[in-house]
What does this fold into?
Amino acid sequence: MEECIFCKIICGEIPCQKILETENFIAIKDANPKVANHSLIISRKHYETFFDMPSEIYKELLETAKKTTEKLGVKDFNLVVNNGRVAGQLISHAHLHILPRKETDRFKLNV
It folds into this structure.
């Protein structure tokens, strides 16, 4: 997708702080973090939402999230998926947020 910022990151057109790469996903630091070490797991192929992603790669998605938290040394965290515009998905490319948590971070997740 020509205009997709995540596709441009995957192709190397836009620099990022890579944490981890797998066959189907890339883990990067969020450019606009809500908390320290806020990271994203982004699908290498362009899928608009999680419903568009083939279910056979969901296990790899969660394994990538686990490896990313381990690499960051994170024990407490939120995994967040904003699926669709109404749910707050700002970029139409499937991705998972990892929000590391500390008692002092003052971040409020509204669920």
Notes: The beta strands are 18-21, 25-29, 39-43, 77-80, 95-100. DSSP finds two helices and five strands in the chain.
